[in-house]
């Protein structure tokens, strides 16, 4: 369950930070499980479809030598056997696992592996064909809203046409500066789409903004994770290292406990100070 008074659902975004290596992916799953996250998330692409035409032949320097951007995308994709291996590993560690499909064949690929949900990346919010394919699965949908206008979000919600959707406020800058966080969008989305759980997907450095999002009512938090921010790859710099994820989950739970229920009462811990300090009774 997400929302409805449940604890914030923490998604550890592995994405492509495994760099095409199953063992790195398993180590990141270990990190997520140890920190107390609820889920790990990957990204699934069919490179020949999802790679923009103008990017395909652009040279890319990689740990495996210089290659085209398209070949790099192929190099870091997990195949079915590798996804089964990491998915089973996540399940055995008590974690939900799912991915962001970037094209329709990737939806079918993930459905064959029986993922628990589908995540729509901010970049895919305007891909109507992809949204329709995800809608047809009947699975819960997590929709990130970075790089999008309200009109585009309205249209995406109309295409999905499901009550099994979670919206994530996001700003798609890597890494994101505080001035671009715009956390008041959490309440804006909650008011606009009544009854839809609203969370936060962060790409900032540090923890403060994600923690503030929880204090403002975010029911889910997604953050990229890495073994080391200095590793090669485009998302590592905006990711949390293991200690950072542990602190994030710990502090989210503290904030949730501290928010309380809004009902004024005299707590047991106040009884002794009241007896000592209050001179005039009610």
UniProtKB/TrEMBL annotation:
<dbReference type="GO" id="GO:0047444">
    <property type="term" value="F:N-acylneuraminate-9-phosphate synthase activity"/>
</dbReference>
<dbReference type="InterPro" id="IPR013785">
    <property type="entry name" value="Aldolase_TIM"/>
</dbReference>
<dbReference type="Pfam" id="PF03102">
    <property type="entry name" value="NeuB"/>
</dbReference>
<dbReference type="GO" id="GO:0016051">
    <property type="term" value="P:carbohydrate biosynthetic process"/>
</dbReference>
<feature type="domain" description="PseI/NeuA/B-like">
    <location>
        <begin position="28"/>
        <end position="264"/>
    </location>
</feature>
<protein>
    <submittedName>
        <fullName>N-acetylneuraminate synthase</fullName>
    </submittedName>
</protein>
<dbReference type="InterPro" id="IPR013132">
    <property type="entry name" value="PseI/NeuA/B-like_N"/>
</dbReference>
<dbReference type="InterPro" id="IPR051690">
    <property type="entry name" value="PseI-like"/>
</dbReference>
